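Progress note, sequence design subtask.
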């Protein structure tokens, strides 16, 4: 695909006023060949492979950004779900967690994702032990991110894993009590997780992927927000959708340019571009403000699920028009702590957990970077996860939960995570118990429409 100079310059101009950036260039890397019968040897092999393959990643991507004039915010690595390479290894998987975290530091990336397990139907004994290790792994590392896929439309929902993950989240929060439960910000629980997602904390390199591949995540909520706020206030919604679609087309083309050039210089195949509007705490760089610009006093009020559906669909259509390599989740992210307008909407009571759950039906991640009281039980967290997984399974889409029970804090208090993770008001959870339901365990069977052979 050819890119005109005028098109590139027009897109680059967005970076000056509208916070356009390529949010991440992510190296996807298979570690399947690192498995051995010794955890120590597996850890050493994984460290060496990451350091070898990713040695020039950060330098190369920074050079491209400087040459083109487009900010590339993060450089990241996603690896094979680690539970797959530790299955037959004797020892503690924490060894691998620390080894790959050290490798990430050595090559200079911001985050490394893939300390993950895929257990949508059931888990082996090794996978169960691996999931139990996640809290310590996240609390004792800096760059490591983790995820567990507990549900798919074809398998149903593994409620034993959902229950276990609730306990893991509580433990991770307690292990980082002095940081507001920060370890939980590096963990995602999925339904229908995709194998080529470049965004953290849920990125991992799927077993259907190449040995090594370059994926790109492009974000531009500030660009879309600026355009909608300058549009005629009486413009019909289908015309607003056209504006978003055309902007998404430009964003996707800019991102693919970066990704293909990075892949060429590194001698690796180009994988996908994920065009997901991912907000930051910077004023204006906000998905909530895009929603409000369509005609709402606050994000979270009645009608905003319809508005988010319009936004998500227009983003996907624009990306699909621009590139044949659109992948990942490509839509709109709604992390509360990372979006200034969403923080305010939650603070004044316009946005609730129930509304975030409703939003999940039309976007990729619903309960994302949500802070809840530290007293919230593991069973309640598991119940929140179960609801999100059900939406994903029944609608054959990706859904996810990234929730932080903040130790020692209550509803209405603020917690500061810093950097792109921002800050969050602690939101109320339903006061009534779900404990007996969660303790049943077992599996919620796949829906009838999963029988599609």
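Output:
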């Amino acid at each position: 695909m050819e890119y005109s100079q005028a098109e590139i310059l027009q897109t680059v101009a967005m970076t000056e006023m509208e916070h356009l950036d390529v949010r991440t260039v992510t190296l996807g890397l298979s570690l399947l060949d690192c498995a051995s019968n010794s955890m120590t040897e597996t850890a050493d092999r994984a460290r060496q492979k990451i350091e070898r393959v990713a040695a020039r990643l950060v330098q190369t991507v920074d050079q491209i950004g400087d040459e083109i004039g487009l900010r590339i915010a993060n450089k990241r690595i996603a690896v094979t779900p680690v539970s797959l390479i530790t299955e037959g290894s004797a020892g503690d998987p924490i060894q691998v967690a620390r080894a790959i975290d050290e490798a990430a530091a050595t090559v200079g990336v911001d985050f490394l994702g893939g300390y993950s397990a895929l257990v949508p139907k059931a888990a082996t004994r090794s996978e169960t032990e691996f999931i139990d290790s996640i809290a310590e792994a996240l609390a004792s590392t800096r760059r490591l991110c983790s995820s567990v896929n507990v549900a798919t439309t074809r398998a149903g929902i593994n409620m034993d894993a959902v229950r276990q993950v609730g306990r893991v989240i509580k433990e991770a929060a307690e292990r980082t009590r002095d940081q507001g439960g920060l370890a939980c910000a590096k963990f995602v629980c999925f339904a229908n997780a995709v194998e080529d997602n470049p965004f953290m904390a849920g990125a991992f390199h799927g077993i259907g992927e190449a040995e090594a591949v370059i994926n790109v995540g492009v974000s531009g909520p500030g660009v879309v927000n600026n355009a909608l706020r300058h549009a005629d206030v009486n413009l019909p919604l289908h015309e607003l959708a056209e504006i978003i679609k055309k902007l998404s087309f430009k964003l996707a083309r800019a991102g693919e340019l970066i990704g293909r050039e990075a892949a060429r210089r590194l001698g690796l195949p180009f994988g996908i571009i994920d065009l997901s509007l991912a907000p930051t705490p910077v004023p204006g760089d906000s998905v909530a403000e895009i929603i409000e610009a369509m005609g709402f006093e606050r994000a979270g009020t009645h009608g905003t699920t319809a508005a988010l559906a319009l936004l998500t669909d227009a983003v996907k259509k624009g990306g699909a028009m621009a590139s044949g390599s659109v992948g990942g989740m490509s839509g709109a992210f709604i992390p509360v702590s990372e979006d200034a307008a969403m923080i305010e909407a939650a603070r004044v009571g316009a946005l609730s957990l129930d509304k975030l759950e409703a939003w999940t039906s039309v976007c990729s991640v619903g309960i994302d970077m949500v802070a809840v009281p530290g007293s919230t039980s593991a069973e309640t967290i598991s119940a929140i996860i179960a609801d999100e997984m059900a939406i994903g399974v029944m609608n054959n889409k990706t859904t996810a939960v990234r929730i932080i029970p903040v130790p020692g804090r209550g509803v209405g208090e603020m917690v500061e995570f810093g950097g792109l993770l921002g800050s969050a008001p602690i939101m109320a959870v339903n006061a009534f118990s779900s404990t007996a339901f969660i303790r049943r365990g077992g599996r919620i069977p796949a829906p009838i429409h999963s029988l599609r052979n």
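Residues 237-266 form the longest helix (30 residues). Work on this subtask will continue into the next period as scheduled.
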